[in-house]
Design goal:
single chain; 111 residues; mainly beta; 4-stranded antiparallel beta sheet; 9% helix
Amino acid sequence: MSATPGTAIAAPKARLVHCGDATCLRISGRRTHAAVAIRVSGHPLVVEGNRSWRATMPLATARDWARTDGGTLIVTLADERTGGESSEVVTPPPGALGKRIELATLIVSAY
């Protein structure tokens, strides 16, 4: 994706978590400072944490947002102090966004 010097980030991570009786997607990552705004697929995101952050959203919301971005979730960090921005595609667990993934090989072992 794109990055402006000083705003590069490590790729954010996503995993499924339980939130009450539902399933949610938790996205986490790092930013240069706590004032850096975070958007997912163009939507502002309220996060917990400072430089290390995380946000949890209902899986249905993540699926809706991914639909508008061609089936992917794009995390954008925007530093209003410098005007810099960086974006990365977050890779959710296989099948989390409702897409089918064709596997070339599947190995099952029993011990």
